[in-house]
Amino acid sequence: MTDIKSKVQGYNASVEARDVKALIGKNKNIYESIVIISKRAKQLNVEIKRELGEKLEEFATSSDNIEEIHENKEQIEISKFYERLPNPSLIATEEFLSENIRHRYIDRGDNQGDKESGSIEL
After folding, report:
1. Phi and psi at residue 106, in whole multiples of 5°?
2. Contact, 56 vs 75, CB < 8 A?
3. Number of domains comprising the chain
4. Which of 27, 41, 62, 89 is the most exposed place for a label (fewest CB within 10 A)?
5. Would you call 52 helix, strand, or coil by DSSP?
6. pLDDT band for position 113 (50/70/90)?
7. Residue with the larger pLDDT of the pair 38 and 56
8. 13, pLDDT greater than 90
9. pLDDT at 69
């Protein structure tokens, strides 16, 4: 997986109104588009949490004294960067609109690949 910094380069972190017709896209179904975007947003959220955890783990120290608080400037800067990132749903919407999300249907075997009954896998 790539670093989140390169993925969100140029994305606007603030919410903006979207044209519903643009969200329909190739699917011709707004509900399907929303499911695709939401599943991608969940993936991004997990990826961001994992990446942040790995970076902050480098600074983790074990201390027996609860009152001992140790500030680390690098740790604070990393945390601030992740706080300023766009919301995962905004990133997923941008990816969907720029057609950077691939999805497929999983055949569960009960309906012989019926498009309506399959679930979307990202």
Report:
1. -100, 125
2. yes
3. 1
4. 62
5. helix
6. very low
7. 38
8. no
9. 57
Encoding tokens for residue 48? Answer: 């961001």
Joined together, the tokens standing for residue 55 give 């970076």
As a three-state string, the secondary structure of 53-118 is: HHHHHCCCCCCCCCCCCCCCHHHHHHHHHHHHCCCHHHHHHHHHHCCCCCCEEECCCCCCCCCCCC
Residue in the structure block whose two tokens are 């896209």:
25
Q: Smallest Cα–Cα separation from 102: which of 30, 45, 50, 25?
A: 25
Q: Is the pLDDT of residue 38 over 90?
A: yes
Domain span at residue 103?
A: 4-61+68-121
Q: What residue type is assigned to position 57 of the chain? A: E
**Rounded-to-integer distance, Cα 87 and Cα 63, Å:** 33
CB atoms within 10 A of CB 73: 7
For residue 66, pLDDT over 60 is answered with no
